[in-house]
Amino acid sequence: MLKIKQQMVEKAYKFRFYPTPEQESLLRRTLGCVRLIYNRALAARTQAWYENKERVGYKQTSAMLTNWKKQEDLDFLSEVSSVPLQQGLRHLQTAFTNFFSGRAKYPNFKKKRNGGSAEFTKSAFKWRNGQVYLAKCLEPLSIRWSRQLPPDCVPTTITVKLDPSGRWSVSLRVNDTRDLTLKPATKLLGIDLGITSLITTSDGKKVANPKNLHKLHKKLRLAQKSLSRKTKGSNNYQKARLKVARIHAQIKDSRLDYTHKLTTQLIRENQTVVVEDLAVKNMVKNHKLAKAISDANWGELVRQLEYKADWYGRELIKIDRYFPSSKRCSNCGHIVEKLPLNIREWDCPECGSHHDRDINASVNILAAGLAVSVCGATVRPEGSKSWKAGALKQKAPNSDVKESRAVS
């Protein structure tokens, strides 16, 4: 008898919760201890490198934590659960690993005004009758269950977070064994990301950019102006700071909600979705467009498409960012030399076809994505620096680097 291997997907379900005064006091102390240990370990690792050129790892910082707990001025570290403190050191190790791999900048010190988070593993919480009991807490967390966890799923890790606006949230990480694969669809879609229109699809549709920051920009500006006039550290300063933080939270929530609804709709309706592999971090260095690009949330949109396609059995293809999708005629393939951003419509000098800039780009993106998917062809323009770099990599002996990195 054949055994069918269950597909397991790791998911995190986030909920708001409202702690009792006793729970809030304990959780705030826990967050403060996690922040203290993280900052002390970061300072120790930085000092060891600059003074002795010595790398300090997780094991050394864990031994430091044991010694810190024995000090009289740090005896309060024993009043909270030790698991979040150890997890904080593991997160610091991950931050350094990402830094040395070139994926992130050097770790920063944590600040109290940013709230904070504490991660509890299985040994530091109990899941009983659908309720969460954290270590050293006698009562369960008062969670607002906006949706139910998958059946027969038990949380493996729980993260408690306090955001700058003063809201408490809990994230439950579970292993979902359900088969989420959707029925196959016949539609293929190319997507061009933009600012005026958030996305333009290859079937000629345009989805407007909600511009969440723009809607609340005046309210945010006035709140920030009021904050700048308060004496730092005073009660009025804290009230004004919370007001600014709440406006930022409102912008963030509306932006994330819109992105989730849009990506879910795209994945459910299309079997294959093709997007450009944009370097958003480099694009926001343009100070004239940085605010608009950040508000459009391109990076998060593509990230959600990627993991949702994996969940629901769809295909997401990323084509190379150097592919001239806007300057190429989707009818005859002619590439114009220059096409400034202010030109939204243009006529092909070869075949005379009239193009909407964004729709033409989305059609080309779909065609390039299908070419990459079928035969692994490169979509970089011949003669460009990126094309030459890819050609050199192909010629290198024993190289397994493909010329096109468009396939996700």
Task: Looking at this protein, list some descriptive labels.
alpha+beta, Nucleotidyltransferase, domain 5, five-stranded mixed β-sheet, 16% strand, disordered N terminus, disordered C terminus
Description:
The chain is of the alpha+beta class and about 400 residues long. It folds into 2 domains: about 10-175, no CATH class; about 190-210 and about 250-395, Nucleotidyltransferase, domain 5. About 40% of the residues lie in helices and about 15% in strands. The chain is built from 11 helices and 13 strands. The strands form 4 sheets. Strands 9-8-7-10-11 form a 5-stranded mixed β-sheet. The chain has a 4-stranded antiparallel β-sheet with strand order 1-6-5-2. A hairpin with a 6-residue loop joins strand 12 (about 345) and strand 13. Helix 2 runs antiparallel to helix 3, helix 5 (about 215-230) packs antiparallel against helix 6 (about 235-270) and helix 6 crosses helix 9.
Per the principal axes of the C-alpha atoms, what is the gross shape? globular
Radius of gyration: 26 Å
| Number of E strands | 13
Q: How many separate helices?
A: 11
Nearest-integer average pLDDT:
88
Determine the oligomeric state from the structure.
single chain
Q: Give a short account of the largest sheet.
A: 5 strands, mixed
Which strand-content bin applies to the residues?
15-25%
Fraction of residues in H or I helices: 40-55%
Question: Could you state the order of secondary-structure elements as H and E?
Answer: EHHHEEEEEEEEHHHEHHHEEEHH
Weakly predicted, low-confidence segments: 1-5, 383-408
Helix/strand-derived class?
Answer: alpha+beta
Kindly give the count of domains. 2
> How would you write the strand order of the largest sheet?
9-8-7-10-11
Instruction: Note the gap between the termini.
Output: 35 Å
